[in-house]
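Service request form, structural biology core

Requester: graduate student, group of Dr. S.
Request type: structure prediction, single chain
Budget code: on file
Notes: please return the result as C-alpha cells.

Sequence provided:
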Amino acid sequence: MPQTTAPDSPTGAQASAEGSQLAGGPIIVGLGLLAALHALVLVWQGVGPVDDDYIVYRYARNWLASGSLSFQPEGWGGAPGPVEGFTSPLWLCLCAFAQLLGLAPTVWTPGVGTVSAGLATVWAGWAARSVMPLGAGRWALIVPLLMALSPSLAWHAVAGLGTAPMAAAMALAVLAAVRSRRGLFAVASVVAVSFRLEALVAILPLGIAAAYGAAAEGERSLAARLVRWTGPALFMVALITLVRWGLFSRLAPSTYFVKRLPLSEEVGYGAQYLLRAFTEGGLAAMAFAAMVARSVERPALARALMGATVIVLAYVLACGGDWMVYGRFLVPFLPVFAVGAGLLVTGTTSRPARFLIAIALTLSTLSGLRPDVRSQAIFEHRFFEAWWLRVGDELRERAPEGSSVALSPIGAIGWRSGLPIVDVLGLTHDVFHDLEPDLAAVDVKGHHRHSGRWVLDQQPTYVILGNGILQPSTGTMDVNPWEADIPVDPRFGRDYVAETAWVSEADGTRRPLPYFRRREAEPLSP
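Core staff response, request fulfilled:
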C-alpha cells in the first residue's frame, strides 16, 4: 500500500539537500573545536570539578572497594545503609570506570566534559543546518556559535556531574529527531535519561514529533510509531526506577527529599534561578526565544522544541534550581534551546529583524563572561575547591586512625581524606528527610534541612564549621546558617575545643584551618 509523506517529513529533494548540508559543515566542526577550547581555557585558569562531583567519586570508590553504594567507608560503625546521595546513575558508572583506569578527577571530569561540549555543539549545529529553510544556511550557524560561546556549557563541562555529557546526548537526540533516525534517537534518549531522569521532559516531545513526521516508516498505526520512538527512553526510566527501589527503597535520590520545599518556595527560588540565567550565560534568553520558534517546513519539530522548552522551564520553576553558578539545571537542555532559537532567527522573514535577534542572543550569551560573573566564579572556585582538596589531604595525613569529621562541604574533603564523614547537610544519609525546612534562617537552595543535635549525637572526632574558611576581610570564621544549631548546643561547649591547623597550599604559603576537636581525642599531628 503506497505511503503518504507527512507534512513534517522531508521530501527526497529536501533530504538530499539536508544530507549535503550535514556532510559539508567545516565551520560547524570548527565551532565544536572552539567549544572544547572554551572549556580548556577554564582548566588553564584553575577551574575543575565542583565539590559535589567528588561526592560521586567517593561513591564510586566505595562501590569498587566493597560492592556497596554507600558514601561511608566500609566497616565504619556509624555508617547508615546504602543511601543514594548522587543524582546521575550513568555518571557514577563512568566515574567508577575512570577509577578502574587510574584517572584522577581533575583529569577525568574536564576531559569528558571538553569532548562532550564539542560534540554537543557539532550535533546541534548539524541539526540546525538540517531544519533551516533552504537559503538560510549561514543563519543556522547562530546555533553552534551560541553553544561555542556559552560560558554555561564551558563551565559545567569542567565542573562535572555529567552535565555536559547529558547535553551532548540531548543534542544527538535533537539531531536524530530532525533526521528521522529512530535507532540513533533511541540510543541518545536512553543515554540522556541515564544521566538524569528529567531528560525525559524534552525527550518525549521530540519523540512524539518525530513519530508524527515518520509516516513513511512502514507502521500504519500512529500508536506503533509513538511506542517505537518514545519506548526506549520510557523503558530506561522504568528500569532505573525499579533498580533504585530495589537498592534504596525509594523512588528518588536522597537529595530530592533533603532539598524539597513547599511549592511556593520552590517557585520563588526557581524564578530567581531563571533570572540569574539571563545574565550568567544567556540560557534563559535562548529558552524564551525557543518558546516562539517558527518553521514553515518543519512545524511539528518547531512545536516540539517549543513544548520541550516550556516543560523544562516549568520543571526548573517547580524544583527551584540549585545554588551553582551558570544555570546547571538548564545546561543539559541547551541544544533544545539553541536549535529552537535558531528556528526563530531563520523563521523571521525580515533580514534586519533576523540580525537584531541574532545579535541580542549573542550579547546575552556573552554577558556570562563579564568580570563580575566569570572572574568572580573563577576566584571562588580557586578559593574554596582547591582549599578543600588541601584540607582533605591534611586530614588524611594528620588525623589519627579511627577519626571522623563533621562538616558541610563533604565532597573534596571526603574524597581526599577517606575519613568517615558526618554529613551536616544530610545529602548522603536519610535522617533529615522528614525534618521541616528552616525557611527563616537559611536562604541557600538545598541547605534548609539540618540538625545540630543529630550531628553531635554521632560524636565526630573533629567538627569543621564555616566551610573551614577564615574570612579574608575580617580573619574570623562565619558559621553557616544551617550550622548555627551546632555551637549553641550545650554539648558542643562541653565536649569540643577550638584549634587551628596550618595547612600548606600548592604555592608553599600556609593558611589557617579552624576546627574543633573532641576533648578526649588527639589533635591533628604537626
